[in-house]
Predict the 3D structure of the following.
Amino acid sequence: MQSATVDEVPLVRPLTAGADASGISAWALPDFDVPEAPSEVLSEPLDPHAEELARARQVAEQAGFAAGHAQGEKAGFAAGHAEGLAAALAEQTHIQQRFQGWLQSLTQPLADLDAEVSLQMARLAVQMARVIIYRELTIEPEHLDVVARTAIEALPVAVRAVTLVCHPDDADALQAAVDQDTIQSQHAQTVTVRRDATVTPGGL
């Protein structure tokens, strides 16, 4: 007689929070509401010379900055001083040139006026000499050399060359006076005699 087959059912044991006899313990869900304790971080001991090195580096940086600032300030002052001096010299030169231009514009008309006055004075002296000569020769025609000398002395100092234009009959007497230096004035003009038949005898 064949007996019925019975399937074997595995034995399931309930899990408890504690450990059972076989040493198996149940895994418990962690409580996320409770903060974890921070893990301790082991800090390495500080080098006793590191702080001194950092302080020395800081002092060196500050000293270098101060020295660079002072050097830059000194260089900037020197450059600014040179630039300002050059600008002042250029302005002074410009003012001098303008002042010289003003002086020239003032002195040039005076020079022109002086030349014009000298020319007019020479013309006036010639006219006066002619009047004197005519009068003297009308009164005393034989004193032609004296009249000529008086006329020459009335001329301006700038006149260096004098030409006596006379009648041919009077030329020899005047030339003799010129040769004897009795006509030249103290200004040492050069006197020449020229004959002209159109001149009245005894006249110049």
